[in-house]
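tl;dr need the bound structure. longer version: we got a ligand (S-adenosyl-L-homocysteine) that a collaborator sent over and nobodys looked at where it sits. i said id run it. heres the input, straight from their email, havent touched it
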Amino acid sequence: MDYFPAFLRLEGKPCLLVGGGAVAARKARLLLSAGAELTVVAPALNDEMTAQVHNGRVRHERRRFRDSDTGGQWLVVSATGDPAVERRVSNAAERAGIFCNAVDDREHCSFITPAIIDRSPVMVAVSSGGSAPVLARRIRTAIESQLSFGLGDLAQLAGRWRQRVGEVLPDFARRLRFWEWVFDGPVAAAVTAGDLPRAERLLATELDTELDTELDDTRESSGLRGEAWLVGAGPGDPGLLTLKALQVMQRADVILHDRLVSEQVLDLARRDAERISVGKAPGCPAISQEEINALLLRLVSEGKRVCRLKGGDPFVFGRGGEEAEALEAAGLPFGIVPGITAAAGCAAAAGIPLTHRDAAQSLVLLTAHGKDSVDTLDWPSLARDRQTLAVYMGVRRFEALMTRLIAHGRAADTPIAIIERGTTPGQRVVRGRLGQLKMLADAHRVRSPAILLIGDVAAMGVRRTAEPAAAVSPESAIQRLASG
Ligand code: SAH
């Protein structure tokens, strides 16, 4: 982080503006709207600034800047467009120990101003740290269009009720849910419709209901009902999360995640959500599925909203089925959000079609995890031509896979592709023939997580020439977040 983000309270604080042109006038407007007591030093003022002086809102010193001008000021903005003056102001501010912003002159700034969306009291500030102001402004435009103009009224309403709600609902989780109801439900709708009295009444009534529930502990509080979501996080690239997965992650109290779920994906969860890793890391004592189920049930029973986040899709070799059964048996509410499974994500990332009219009419997802699984697989059917095999958790079984498939008739020169850490920045793709599988995996030191694709499609492969826009476009990133 190059800059510390903060909002300054300037009400009644002496601030200095150097310069009297259009840029300075723009800065004056902002400083005045924050209530600053503004002094402008400039040999001449433009019309707008002259009017501000006449209104008595700005004190004007008709002359050039002097170092002593910084005395008694809280901060300085220099908007003269003259680098020599900006440097001088900046040096004087430095010596006086106050913050200085030289407009469009980052070198002489000890603070920079963000692009803002003003729905006071809600304020969104966007900064690229001075590196890409155009990008920051584009992000602002994208956010601007997402935020209703009633937002400020809604925030003010919340501000008026904040203390009372805190008294009635001392429990954090219940309070959080109450506010979510306010911001997502009929109160927000009434504010958007411009009917503030109705919004106020709705909020008051709901809070009364909450109070009754609080006093009568035999009544079930709707606010504290826990629930679980079995969510697919995709194979690693956070851009491959579904919108719904993102929404659930941003509402969850607890994120119960597998080891395979990437850090970048976890970073998109609600900041203050508790994170529990139930992953099986090599060399560490494994948490059994029964223990995971028990933990899940306990958290939901405590009233937590739990996001059970799994790599890929929860129902593809993810044991999501067992967790869903446990939740159902316990009578606890739960939902399921599918994810992009490794076969689909990795194939796309490597440019390999999983089916192809000329090469493969069917696709089999299989796992060769554990010795039993190798013995119980239907080898004659797996060895058939014109089908693609996507092998999960197979790295330690490559030799058995190779020999059995060939023994049951699959040609040794059938193309294969091993995709390691697919869709992540560390992705590797190793291509070859079935007969070389073990040798290739050893030579390239293939490690888990890796998926193995077997079949003629593995020799195909289109080179992607465009990155999906979502990876770079601020608009789409914001739309993703805004829907959360
Ligand atoms: N539910 C997951 C699969 C879990 S089993 C899904 O739908 O994708 C774990 C196996 O998935 C790994 O051993 C590996 O074979 C595969 N896998 C998961 N993420 C992967 C990735 N980013 N790259 C390659 N293989 C991956």
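gonna send this back to them w/ a short note. The CA atoms of residues 402 and 437 lie 7 Å apart.
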